[in-house]
Amino acid sequence: MDPLNLIFMGSPDFSAVALRALLDAGHRVLRVYAQPPRPAGRGQKDRPCPVHVFALEHGLEVQTPKSLSGAAEQQSFIALNADVCVVAAYGLILPEPVLNAPRLGCLNIHA
């Protein structure tokens, strides 16, 4: 099977494992979407989620929108012309234009 051009959406450790598996399988990740950094630890400093950290460590583009309901955010997603979007515990509801954008659709995986 030829590598797919995909978008990955996820946040916790489980999602980072799934992202690693997709990369190891040779798929091209066009962009990663993760939850925005949140305050954590003693100093309550903003800390990125595990998927965000993993993506940066592997040189992947990361977006952390608070919502996907805006036209500009949706157009940016659509413009990627992805084959598929893999969603693993992302944490946001995907609007219809996002769900319909990838050529093969969106796959929601669970632990």
Give an overview in words.
Helices cover 30% and strands 25% of the residues. It has helices spanning 13-24, 50-57, 71-78, 96-100; strands at 5-10, 28-33, 38-40, 45-47, 62-63, 84-88, 106-108. The strands form two sheets. It has a five-stranded parallel beta sheet. Helix 1 links the parallel strand 1 and strand 2. Helix 1 packs parallel to helix 2. The protein is globular, with a radius of gyration of 14 Å. The two termini are 25 Å apart. The model has no long low-confidence stretch (mean pLDDT 94).
Largest sheet: 5 strands, parallel
Helix-strand string: EHEEEHEHEHE
Which spans of ≥5 residues are poorly predicted at pLDDT below 50?
none
Question: Got a strand count?
Answer: 7
Strand content: 25-35%
> Which geometry do the CA atoms define?
globular
How many individual helices?
4
